[in-house]
Amino acid sequence: MRTSSVILVLVVLIGLVAGGIYYFRDTDGPVVSLAPEAGPVSSSKPLLLMVEDRDSGLRRVTVRLNQNGRDRVLLQQDFGPGQRQLQQQIELKGLKLKNAPFTLVVEATDSAIYHFGQGNTSQRDFAFAYDSKPPRISLLSRSHNLNQGGSGLVVYQVNEEVEQTGVLVGERFFPAFEQEDGRYLCLFSAPWNADSKGMNFRVIATDLAGNTRKSGFYHHLNSRRRNHTNISISDAFLQAKMPDFQDRFPDEQNLVDVFLKVNRELRQANRARLKEIAGKTASEPLWEGAFLRPKGSNREPFATDRSYRYKGRRIDRQTHLGVDIASVAQGPVVAANSGRVVLAEDFGIYGQCVIIDHGLGLMSLYGHLSSFEVQEGDEVRKGQEIARTGATGLAGGDHLHFGLLIDGLPVNPVEWWDASWVRNNIDSKLRLRVD
Ligand SMILES: [Zn+2]
Q1: Same domain membership, residue 381 and residue 239
Q2: Ligand 1 centre and the CA of 338: distance in Å?
């Protein structure tokens, strides 16, 4: 063979290989995904379609919906060169779907030259159940007597599986907890700081398809009288306490400014953390009966508005959301009820602090301790000694700051110390069963 023929054959071969590589370069169809991709859906929740072809780009996407043998096209879109991705909401609103299963069929073709120029086509079928009916809520607890800043318990049932349920008080949501027998228990509060007029109470339930039911319940609300007190901030107090906090606020030179940062920002941060800690609660009651009131004298009622005065001038206002109890220095502190320790550490304004979870979002907090004998995860019994009082954190002298929380929101502990209140408002409802 002559050299020129050899070159010609080589060129043809290279051409064939290159053409083959080009032809077989993209033999995969576009990647199709849908969120959610199965399960119950409603018109309140659009589906999110994602189609992607990284190699050659998209040519055409078709979405068809089939219910009871009826087929309709929801989307048909052609693409110009270079479009590799489609992100599209598929609305079910206005389609007049029946409460029954349906299928979404997504067909996507890329612009590859494979299949003699037809490109690669992917098809995915997604099976759903259309559900437009909100859940039905059946209340088992009848009367709900509430004091502002206090607690309440609602017991109810829901006729289907739910994504979220609980009590809504104004904008504040309190989660309910499903029990083994299917009942839902929800501890909630008439928040200490909410306006008692127009405070709305609703049981709310959202099913897996996104349908929401809100239903009211009978209640009686006693608004609270606001208490007020003055607290003098002395130089001796600032010099004794502020060095503990100064490294948190290194920009503040003046001790009064450090105090204001602690009293405002650190207090806020600590309250936000209480809401996070609420997520660690047990889904069943761990407590039993009334809570033990710590021994000693009560210095002021729950949710007292405090004016902080320095050299006669008011420098700050805050609401004190616990009860301060003073007895002997380094006196014993016992668990007010049974539960599990969810925090035992230095905790901002509360100093050395222990928080016990009693289940259903109910927690007790013990602040300003000089020492504690428990650690996170420990189970404790009602009356068990857990700590000693002290003056750590933002405390002027040795005392116990006792707090009760529902879903991280401080509530008035006085009710929970009262055996007859607990019997009438909590225990009698916990026993409610379906008849
Ligand atoms: Zn206190």
Answers
A1: yes
A2: 22
